[in-house]
Design a protein that fits this description.
alpha/beta, eight-stranded parallel barrel, three-stranded mixed beta sheet, 36% helix
Length: 364
C-alpha cells in the first residue's frame, strides 16, 4: 500500500513539474504579466488637420483666435448602433450633410463595461476617423444620470463608480492626447439627486470631483476642453456664481429642454428671463455648449417630461443662444430615442429634425 501511495505521489509530482515547465516554456497571452500597456491613437489615420479648439475668455476659438460656434447633433451610443447594424461612415456623412460641425458620442457605462475598454476604443477610433474625414469635431460624453458621489443612478444603464469614472477619463485622455478632432470631454452627462432619491447633491463636493477629473485629464492632454454640468439634470448653473470650477480652459454645459423653465405666461421674453437666470448668465464669463436640446409634440414618439412642446421652443432657444454665442448639440439623430431628429434610417427628418437641419445648414 505504501509503495502504491509513494508511486502515485511521484507520478503526481512529475505531472506537476511537466505542467510548470510547459507554462514556463511558453507565453500565455492571457496571463496578467503579459497584458500590454495601453497605446495611443494613431493620428496618421486622419485625413485632415483640424485646428485645436481652446477657451479664450467666454469664447471657443481656433488656432488663429477666431471664434467657433459648435452646432451639431447627438448620435446614439455607438454600442446601440453596432447592435442595429447602423454603425458606419454613412451616418457621419449624413450628419455632415445636415450641416453639423460637431458630433456628440454618449457613452453609457453599461455599454463601456460590456465591450471593455480596448474594444470600445475601436469604436471611438472609427468615430474619430469618420468625423475627421468630414471635418467635424467630436464630444466624448460619459453618459450617466444620477449623483455620482453617492453612486446612485436613475437606471441600471447609468451605473458607474467614482473610480470607474476617474479611470475612464484617464484612459480616454491618454489615448486621444494631441488629437484635435476630439475637442471636448463632457465629464458627466446629467448630475441630479432626483429630489433626494439619489442622495443629496452638494455643489462643493461636485465641484471638487470635477476639478480632480480635470487634473487627471490635463496631466495627459491640456489641448482639450473639459465640459462641466450643473445639477437638475445638467440645467442649473447658479452655484458657479459663488463657487465656479477652479480650473482654466473649461466650458460649462446646459440641457435646457422646453419644460425645464416654467413661466406663468409662456412668452418668448419670459422664457429668456428664466433661461438667463438659471444658466444663460454664465455665457458672459465662460463658453457654454448646450449639449442636449430638442422637443417633441405631446402625441409624438417617446413624448415625456421635460421635452414636450408644440414647436415654439425651437426658434426661441436658437435665438436665445445666438444672442449669447452659445454652442449647441441637438438630441438625438436616431429613430428610437426621444426626442428623435429622424423617423427612420432613411434619415427622414421629424419636426425638430427639419428645424435643426435648416438651422445648421444656414451656417454654410
Amino acid at each position: 500500500m505504501k509503495t502504491f501511495l509513494f508511486s502515485a505521489f511521484i507520478l503526481s509530482l512529475a505531472i506537476s513539474f511537466q505542467n510548470i515547465a510547459a507554462v514556463s516554456g511558453s507565453k500565455n497571452a492571457n496571463s496578467w504579466w503579459d497584458n500590454p500597456y495601453p497605446t495611443q491613437f494613431d493620428s496618421s489615420q486622419l485625413r485632415h488637420k483640424l485646428d485645436f479648439v481652446s477657451v479664450q475668455g467666454n469664447k471657443l476659438v481656433d488656432e488663429a483666435g477666431k471664434q467657433i460656434i459648435f452646432r451639431g447633433v447627438n448620435i446614439a451610443d455607438p454600442d446601440k448602433l453596432v447592435r442595429e447594424g447602423q454603425w458606419s461612415e454613412k451616418l457621419f456623412k449624413e450628419v455632415k450633410a445636415w450641416g453639423a460641425n460637431i458630433v456628440r458620442l454618449p457613452i453609457h457605462p453599461v455599454s463601456w463595461q460590456g465591450h471593455g475598454r480596448d474594444n470600445y476604443f475601436k469604436l471611438l477610433d472609427q468615430a474619430i476617423i469618420w468625423a475627421n474625414a468630414q471635418q467635424m469635431y467630436i464630444i466624448i460624453d460619459w453618459h450617466s444620470i444620477g449623483y455620482l458621489p453617492a453612486e446612485l443612478f436613475q437606471h441600471s444603464m447609468y451605473d458607474t463608480t467614482m473610480k470607474e469614472t476617474r479611470t475612464f477619463w484617464k484612459d480616454v485622455a491618454f489615448r486621444y492626447a494631441g488629437v484635435s478632432t476630439v475637442a471636448v470631454y463632457e465629464l458627466f452627462n446629467e448630475p441630479t439627486d432626483q429630489g433626494g432619491r439619489a442622495g443629496k447633491a452638494n455643489w462643493l463636493e461636485w465641484k471638487a470631483f470635477n476639478e480632480e477629473l480635470i487634473d487627471i485629464i490635463y496631466a495627459h492632454d491640456n489641448q482639450v476642453i473639459p465640459l462641466v454640468a450643473g445639477f437638475n439634470w445638467a440645467y442649473d448653473l447658479r452655484p458657479i456664481q459663488q463657487n465656479p470650477v477652479n480650473r482654466q480652459g473649461i466650458a460649462y454645459t446646459a440641457h435646457p429642454y422646453p419644460q425645464k423653465a416654467k413661466p406663468k405666461l409662456k412668452s418668448k421674453e419670459n422664457f429668456f428671463v428664466l433661461w438667463d437666470e438659471v444658466w444663460g448668465f454664465a455665457a458672459k464669463d465662460y463658453p457654454i455648449i448646450a449639449t442636449e436640446i430638442g422637443w417633441v409634440k405631446a402625441d409624438g414618439k417617446g413624448a415625456h417630461i421635460p421635452v414636450i412642446n408644440d414647436g415654439s421652443y425651437g426658434p426661441h432657444i436658437i435665438e436665445f443662444m445666438q444672442d449669447r454665442s452659445i454652442s449647441w448639440v441637438a438630441w438625438v439623430f436616431d429613430p428610437d430615442w426621444s426626442p428623435t431628429m429622424i423617423s427612420d434610417w432613411d434619415f427622414t427628418p421629424t419636426q425638430q429634425g427639419a428645424f435643426f437641419k435648416k438651422e445648421m445648414q444656414k451656417q454654410h
